[in-house]
Every structure is written in C-alpha cells, then in structure tokens.
Amino acid sequence: MTLNKTIVTYIKKIYPAQNPVLLHCPEFLGNEKKYLAECIDTKYVSYVGHFVADMENKIKEITGAEYAVAIVNGTAALHILLLVVGIKPGDEIITQSLSFAATAAAIVHAGGTPVFVDVERETLGMSPESLKTFLLENTEIKDCVCINKKTGSQIKAVIPMHTFGHPVRIDEIQKICDEYCLLLIEDAAESLGSFYQGKHTGTFGKAGILSFNGNKLVTTGGGGMLITDDEVIANRVRYLSTTAKRPHRWEFYHDEVGYNLRMPSVNAAIGLAQLEYFDRILANKKETAILYQQFFDSISIKSVIEPDNSKSNYWLNAILFEDRQQRDEFLEYSNDNDVQTRPAWNLLHTLPPYQHCLHTDTPNAEYFVDCLVNIPSSVRV
Ligand SMILES: Cc1ncc(COP(=O)(O)O)c(C=O)c1O
C-alpha cells in the first residue's frame, strides 16, 4: 500500500460512522434538542431567557474567568473587545502571521493595523523571540507608550493565538508585553479546554475570546465569548453589544452608538447542552490524538503534539510532511478518497488586504504552510 493510502485507510477505520470523513463535524449527544424545544415552547429565542446566562456561567466555570459575555461569533467578540480596550484608528497591533483571517480582520474592523510576527515550531503559536526581536529593532518607549519608530504609530496590543488548541508560551509573551507597555489580548477561539501551566488559555492577558463556530469542539452554530477578569471591560462589552441601551422596562434610551452582537438564546441552548458533557468531548479528543500519534509514529510521519507545560484540547490534529510536494500529493489523494484534509492557512501578510502591513521574517510559519496538513478530528461516536 502507498503511504497516502495507508493513512487514508487508517482515518476511515477510526471514523467508521462518517462517509465522507469530515475535518470537524459537530456531534449532538446531549440535551441539544430538548433545550432548543424549550426555546421554541417558551418563545425565548433572542438573547432574553436563561440559556445565555447559563452558558456564560458554564464558561466561567471551565475557564476560571471572572466574567464571560456571549457574543454572536468570535470575530465580533474580538472586534468589540478591541474597541473597548481603546484601540483607535492608526494604532498597531501585533499578531502572528499563521492564523485564521478573523484575527487580522477584527483588528482592522476596530480601526487598527496588524503587524505580523513568526510562530514557533514547538507550539505553532506566536514566537516570543520573534516578537521581542521586532520590538527591540523597531520601537521606543516614551512614558510607557510604545512607538513604532518606522511608522510613528503607537503599538497598543499583542494578540497571540493558540493554534489548533495548542497553548503558546504565554508567560514569555506576557513578560514582553509588560516590558513594552503593551496590552495582552488572547485569541483563544480554537482553545476552549486548553491550559498552560494549569491556567486556561484566554485568561492570561487583559481579556480573551472564544469561538463556538460549527467546526469547534463546542458549537452554538455560530457564536463567540469574551472572557476576562476585568469587570469594567466585561460590563462595557455587554453594554455596547446590547445596543448601548440603558436598562429600563419600556424606555429606549441609547447613550452611545451601540452594536447588536449578543448571542441569541437558541444558539446558547445548543452550546449549554454541549458544555454539559464537555469533559467527555475533551477525553474523546485526547484519545483520538493518542491513536493518531501512535499510528503516525509507526509509519514515521511527524504529528503535532501538545507543547511542554500544556494541556491541549487537540481541536485539530496535524501531521507534517517532508515538503510541499508530499503535502500536495496527500491533500489530493485524501480529498479524492472521501477524507477531508486541509493545509495550514496562507500566511496573513501574503493576503491582499494585509500585504502592506509590517511583518518579520516568518521561516517557521512558512515551514508549516509547506508541510502541515490538518486531518479529521471530530469527536468519534
Ligand atoms: C484563530 C481564530 N480566530 C478567530 C476566529 C473567529 O471565530 P468565529 O468564526 O466564531 O467568528 C476563529 C474561528 O473561526 C479562529 O480560528
């Protein structure tokens, strides 16, 4: 058997219930239908009703965050968070070039300009070394304001992303942010259930965001969440995302231009039902990751494993080929044979909307673009 056929045969064997085998297919194994029926029966389908608050409380429990605010999706959660922490037009925000487009889009929606740094081989997330080198070479600090000497703009924040659920070295990044007077915001869209040194991803910086898109470990169809320990940020995100309306039984008094971004109850009902068995989801994902690791070790293909000091949710498993040609042959073979696989994202600084943005050298990110393939990782039922 050729190598590609061996891999595809194995993936089909561990996902016997799926044909085609999808990259990440949601499974509904608990009270999802019952809670949806309750929304319809009680007519509480918008954000009013108990499901949104119940889901927020469950997320607080899992992440240890003091506050959680449910938003229509992760992109919108990051957008509104950036507005609330004071991003102004022209401000620069450093993120990693290897990320989903939403990280950069939210920065631009908030009026900011992204700056892209490299990722590291071990975590696939932001490289503290690349971040530090960029800041050392390009910035000066005046009265705890970090200025980009090349552009004259203020650099306000750093947004690392926990790629495929694997935690970045967030403590190192936090130290650099402190040294350069930068806000740390975490894009934890992919890392619900992932911990670094025992602390949940998304809870290290000023605030973080989660996503409950259809392809995530826990889905609400579409959905997102702000998590933070900062009461002022939480209240302001809640207020602005609920049309900036002063609470009143009948008056409509909006004292600012608000947004309509709160997660509806029907979505939260699905999410809450999934969170009730989140431990089982995490255990199932870990089991799949171990099966994959044993299998790929046995055929001498590298697979991505959780970094040191971390517990990964293994949202998307990934394997690493020798070069782009091998990668392309596998992508072609697997997708032709009913196994959905995909490469890493194109690097953000190479995409048309971001080609004008500053970026560091990105050798590690380029390696992943050439060699990495994500393989099916749904909960196995
Ligand atoms: C890294 C990253 N950031 C942000 C998002 C945006 O989340 P959403 O799709 O809920 O808007 C996603 C995922 O979908 C993501 O993977």
SSE layout:
Elements: H1 3-14, H2 32-42, H3 50-63, E1 67-71, H4 74-84, E2 92-96, H5 101-109, E3 113-117, H6 128-138, E4 139-142, E5 145-148, E6 154-159, H7 170-179, E7 183-187, E8 195-196, E9 199-200, E10 207-211, E11 224-228, H8 231-241, H9 265-275, H10 278-298, E12 302-303, E13 310-311, E14 317-320, H11 324-336, E15 342-343, H12 363-371, E16 372-375
The structure holds pyridoxal-5'-phosphate (PLP).
Structure in words:
This protein has two domains: 3-26 and 278-348 and 358-375, Aspartate Aminotransferase, domain 1; 32-276, Type I PLP-dependent aspartate aminotransferase-like (Major domain) (Aspartate Aminotransferase, domain 2, 3-Layer(aba) Sandwich), CATH 3.40.640. The longest helix has 21 residues, at 278-298. With 381 residues, it is of the alpha+beta class. Helix 2 runs antiparallel to helix 9, helix 3 packs parallel to helix 9 and helix 4 (74-84) packs parallel to helix 5. The protein is built from twelve helices and 16 strands. The model has no long low-confidence stretch (mean pLDDT 97). The relative contact order is 0.20.
What are the defining features of this structure?
single chain; 381 residues; alpha+beta; Aspartate Aminotransferase, domain 1; Aspartate Aminotransferase, domain 2; 2 domains; four-stranded antiparallel β-sheet; 12 helices; 16 strands; 38% helix; globular; binds pyridoxal-5'-phosphate
The chain-level mean pLDDT equals 97
Based on CA atoms alone, the radius of gyration comes out at 21 Å
Bound molecules: pyridoxal-5'-phosphate
Taking the sheet with the most strands, its summary is: 9 strands, mixed
CATH-defined superfamily of the largest domain: Type I PLP-dependent aspartate aminotransferase-like (Major domain)
Number of domains: 2
Number of helices: 12
User: Which shape, going by the Cα principal axes?
Assistant: globular
Calculate the terminal CA-CA distance, rounded to whole Å. Answer: 28 Å
Question: In CATH, what is the class of the largest domain?
Answer: Alpha Beta
**What order do the SSEs take from the amino end to the carboxyl end, as H and E?**
HHHEHEHEHEEEHEEEEEHHHEEEHEHE
Proportion of beta-strand residues: 15-25%
Task: Give the structural class.
Answer: alpha+beta
Query: Low-confidence spans: pLDDT under 50, at least 5 residues?
Result: none
Shape-level CATH architecture of the largest domain? 3-Layer(aba) Sandwich
Count of DSSP E strands? 16
According to CATH, the fold-level topology of the largest domain is Aspartate Aminotransferase, domain 2
Report the helical percentage.
Answer: 25-40%
